[in-house]
Amino acid sequence: MKLKQFAILFFTAMIGLVVMLVLSAHYWDSGNQKTRTDRKVYLTLQTVNISESCRKIEHKIRNSEIDKKLIEDELDKLNSIFENNYLSALLKIREGDYLQAYQLLFNHLDVNILHLSFYDELVISAKITNNFTQLNTWLQGREETSPGTLYLSALIKFESGSYQQSAKEFEEIVNRGFVSEKVFYKLAYAYRLTGDYEISLKWLDRAVEQLSADDKFLAKVLNGKGSIYFLSGDYETAEKHYTDARNSAIKTGNTAEEIKAIGNLALIKDSYGDVYSAREDFKSAIDRTKKIENRKLLAFLYSELGVSYTYTNEILEARKNYELSYEFYSTLKDRERLSYLSANIGSIFLQEANYKSALKYYNDGLDHSAENKLGLILNLTGIADVYSNSSNYSKAIEYYNKANQLADSIQSVTSLINIEQGLGALFFNVNKPIKALKFLMKAKARVNDDEYPFETTELYYKIGTVLASVDSLGDAIKYFKDGLQIALQTGDLYNEIILNTELAHTYYLQNKFIEAIKHLNVGSELAKEYELTQLMGLQQLYFGKIRFAQNKFAEAYNHFDNSFLLSEEVSDYNTKIEAGYNLAQLSVINGDQRKADNWFNKSITIIENISISLNQNQEIQIAHFTGFDEIYNSLISFYLSEEKGTEAFEILERSRSRNTMQNLVNLKLISSISDETMLNKFIDLNWMVKSDLYTSEEKDIFINELKIIKDNIITKDKQLKRFLSITTRKRIKEIISNLNNDNKQ
Length: 745
Known about the structure:
Blueprint: E1 47-48, H1 52-63, H2 68-76, H3 81-95, H4 98-106, E2 112-113, H5 117-128, H6 132-140, H7 147-159, H8 163-175, H9 181-193, H10 197-209, H11 218-231, H12 235-252, H13 255-271, H14 275-292, H15 295-311, H16 315-332, H17 335-351, H18 355-369, H19 373-389, H20 393-410, H21 413-429, H22 433-444, H23 453-469, H24 473-490, H25 493-509, H26 513-529, H27 533-549, H28 553-569, H29 573-589, H30 593-610, H31 618-626, H32 629-641, H33 645-656, H34 660-672, H35 676-690, H36 696-716, H37 720-724, H38 732-744
Parallel strand pairs: 1-2
């Protein structure tokens, strides 16, 4: 299953131009006197603002390709030591020397700075150089509570990921009568990250009210408004604000915000399926950004260029750009952007069926997210997708539900679509097609072809697959064809391949083998070209089914064998089970009873190994294994034909409750272990030992942990030793008898 996610540019580093702050008459006078002591606001320090000459040089450093020697000559002409050091620090930041920049800025903290961008650059430099402790120590020693000091405290909370607390502190500044578009903007940013989009817009609107049409800061605020609408799924309004931001930036010479607006507009193009035009915009923006040496903006553009490449399945190009972006963001210690980028990289590994690496990045993304709701949603959904693809459906539902609660609270349209698609796929995989269709149709109601072409394509593929499974073949073909048409228009290669593949299977179900082979050939050639192992395994399964139906048994056997091996490579259990079952059937036809026995039991072993993760959700477990009745019944018939009555009876017992042995063990454990954490850990480790997500070295660690837990359990209840040592070959009746006897005791 392919996961497409948008990493959204909203508020980047402090790259906007300096804005003269509007100061409240209740707070400020021309000198250093105390004011409004009833509000506990004191200004006992020397108050410093910056000159017009300083503003012009700052603008040049932030927005132009510069000759450092010429800039330094201009700095030498400034009369203020503070201005010289502040601008020198900006040059150091531009060069990537954050420690020197921090030291230059920190030395001026004992002066009451009116220019809030000073604090922005100080806090960013402190974060990168691990100097928050020194800043917090300095703050603890201050008695005065000037707006600058309060702003510094709020910024530290913000950059530490405590967005709710930072919002409270920014609001405290406003409540004390300090009016500043920069404070309003930071408030909007904090509320955006906590998912309160309406409140975020309110503060952005207040920032706009403070600004004239000629103000350089206006473009930054308009970019912020556009991103709120983008996240809410209103691309048309987002595009309007991004366009206004670009025009404002051009008018005021704010190159950084102009480039940001171009990147944001390219996101809109990508969303509409105009990926090649978007890609050219990203590349052009990257070239311009390199000239002004803005690392954070460069990191954003590389990240979004990577997203653009995923739409045409150019995975290597996507990963290359993600890695460039990740390197920049890691240096900048940008938690917000690292949370989004981790989700993007995780999705690449998920598509490649490298579930272990995907899980690592998604978990890293969770750590980076802190209170960032969108980051949490993207990475929780990713983890759910990993568990769903590796057949741990109980865990998958747990994470989908966590993500869904957050997405619903902020009404993030794209997030809700991804979650509902994931739940639809999950319930389809556990043999609950009607419930799957309910989730998929709910997602479909949120999209249209124009605004969400990629999501629409993927939805049509999934809806078609579910409809085919309930024999609505005509409707399924319509969805597949509509999806294929959109995929061809947008260059969505992955869905082009999978839609051709599923169309082929649906035509096979209608006995239209010529049409089926035609679509399979198209899909398989593309899958081979791009080395999509999971899809190749599925295609080999479908080729085998067609040849089987045509009584071409030798060809069918080769296709099923290839399917089993390819699916094993990427841990695609459902395809692997079906391939194994068909190999067993062909072995019976060929009179090779030994091979038939082997393939039947291989398939059933996979089914029962998957079930380890389903014990925590009985509904899911029952539904999942109902779909495998045919395999158990076929093996029973096989054993009866071989006059193996004992083996047939054992399979019959196992078929009545697919994972009866494990269920009985867990039933006894659940009734005996009051420590829920220990019980869940036991079940999780049991699954991890049998999962393909982990290396043999890691599994050795899990086995040791499992042994410690088992020993701990047995120490508390000696009777449980018998249940914890049950093997899969132990007879069902004996276990039931033991459990009954224990219950009587």
